[in-house]
Here is the input.
Amino acid sequence: MKRPSLLLSLFPLMFLVTLIATLVPLFGDDITSGPAQIALLSAALVTSLISILFLKVSWEKIEASMLDQLAKTGSAIFILLMIGALTGSWMQSGVVPTMIYYGMKLIHPSVFLMATFILTAVVSLTAGSSWTTIGTVGVAMLTAGQFLGFSAPWLAGAIISGAYLGDKCSPLSDTVNLCASSTGISLYKHVRYQLYTAIPAGLLSIIFFGVAGFMIPTASTIDISAQSEALQHAFRLSPWLLLVPAFTIFLIIKKVSPFITLLLSALLGAVVAVLFQPELCRQMLQLTKDSGSVMQALEAGLLMLSGNVQIETGNEMLNTLTATRGMAGMLNTVWLILCVVTFGGAMDASGMIQVITEKMALVMRNAVSLVGSTVGTCIFFNLTLSDQYMSIVLPGKMFLDTYKKKGFEPELLSRTLGDSGTVTSVLVPWNTCGIVQASVLQVATLSYLPYCFFNLITPFITILIAAIGYKIRRIK
Here is the structure.
């Protein structure tokens, strides 16, 4: 195997960026419905041909790297499918409408964005999973916020910001554990050190969302009482339905795996839908009268878990917001993830990623350049490898010795990995995190990106704190 040059290593990336830049004006938000997948596979093909013809890398090695990437992403695909099932059953069972109804009653529209940010942060901190938080509480808050008159991108920005704040500081988070293990420090030492950047970024986000809540017209644009009446007319709302999300929180506290937690919660939602919303179940099956058949109840439950459901509520806005796609609605996202790991595997097998990062390491001299280069590398990997785990593990392995040689404690590296690799992954349209959240919230990545204040602020905060030298510890 030959070592690629820097120019050769950058060629597949520039090829992909050029393709994406060409396709975005043509397809807009529909780019992830096929064009982006073709672009990724084309870039993977170019990378593979360069590797085989010029670098003497065997196809078997490239294929093995792709399969290895797929194995690491498999759990995310299963979780994504479960989020689709849960979203469908919780909506049609009345769980989400109940949360929306009481949310509109209890939270004033002016503080709704700020409350959404804080709520999702607390839930994510408890759950240790931004994906689980966004797929459950996030979906409910998004719909409730739209009833109040907020635009979907603003709401998605608040939801994602809060979810990633909690995820980045939770000892239960897989990315937090990954940052700590990649640099060889204790978990709770990493969590404590994260607070020096997470708290300032979180407070700034609260201010931004608080000000925005008072500046954006809300209640004056939508009749809240009319929407509340529409919810009551379409669903049987009851506080008892809140036991379903309470059950989910109980499983999270007991540290049950996300896949099992989401699956059990989705199934419980389907059972509750059959019991509490029999009229809607009949409407799903296009029945004119209630026959009470067990098979019909089973059919309705499976439909809301797996397929598209569009119910007629008598309210146009409510019809749009309560339409669900189940697991079938996530298949397009799964297709995109498969293409992403194909390209990432080809780049990794060719050795091109290693060459690019080694060149970046040459500019590291002091704390600011170390942290800045690490931030840039993590963002670069999120853009190229399209996977946040790779954006944490690879820079962690690459720069650990460099940080030690420069006399800095490895906790500085672990924190920087979380402040860049974790939070920026959701801002990249073709990254697995960006793909998933855009699919779950039904808001394009580039649409919600400007409003993800916490995710945008955090990388700058970590560089700023390194520049002023606050709590930057050196090896004794």
